[in-house]
Amino acid sequence: MAQSTGRVAGKKAFITGGAQGLGAAAGRMLAKEGAKVALADINLAGAQAVADEINAAHGAGTAFAFELDVTQEDQWIDVLEKATAAMGGLSVLVNNAGIGGDGPIESLDFGLWKKVMSVNVDSVFLGAKHALTHMRAHQPGSIINLSSIAGLIANGNSPAYNASKAAVWLLSKNIALYCAKMKLDIRSNSIHPTFIDTPILDGFSARFGKEEAFAKLARQVPLGRIGEPTDIANAVLYLASDESKFMTGAEIKVDGGISAM
């Protein structure tokens, strides 16, 4: 069994999009550092596989898996109740679930626009709205929303993704100010990655081949490479821990220097 260093010992974290990519990486990282984690995903089998892996490494009862369509309010209410009961509380919410899929504004299908906004933005609203009910009883707490560098810097081909991730950025600040106004010891911050080696890049890799695709993306990054899931998981760990107890309404850019240009 892996030894915890305890940076988030006693924390109980609910993570959306936990079956793969950044959500799975965040779950592994938080569990390694002493937290219990609930992995929620529309892909229950994938979330369960990650939970089983975590439990094998850190002991039974460390991780739990739940099926969740993040666009459905009734499912949020039900699953948060079940996860809170399973973990014995809820102190960290990681709104990670998100999708790409986009195109120039003149050719973008309105249905796709609404789907991207629903998965990327409605999920954050619903998650925070209903998680706060449980987090009040387990303060201090932290809400961590995965935005994107594309929520701060626009391009000409991704209107839905740009708009959705910008909405997550400002909604994170709204939640932070609300919690502060309500005298809750619950913080809210956003993380803004650039290109990370996760399944969201699969379409680009299929088009050019992974090596060429990653080389194309790396040329846009001052550090000359794309990021790894652990780069983002480390930022999640910091925001989940009490090390960031005076940080709220802020954003962490994990972008290899893109935003500095």
From TrEMBL:
InterPro entries the record matches: NAD(P)-bd_dom_sf, Sc_DH/Rdtase_CS, SDR_fam
Entries under Gene3D superfamilies matching the protein: NAD(P)-binding Rossmann-like Domain (3.40.50.720)
Annotated keywords: Oxidoreductase
The protein's Enzyme Commission number: 1.1.1.175
GO molecular function: D-xylose 1-dehydrogenase (NAD+) activity
Keyword flag Oxidoreductase: yes
Matches recorded under SUPFAM superfamilies: NAD(P)-binding Rossmann-fold domains
Protein family membership: Belongs to the short-chain dehydrogenases/reductases (SDR) family.
Name of the protein in its database record: D-xylose 1-dehydrogenase
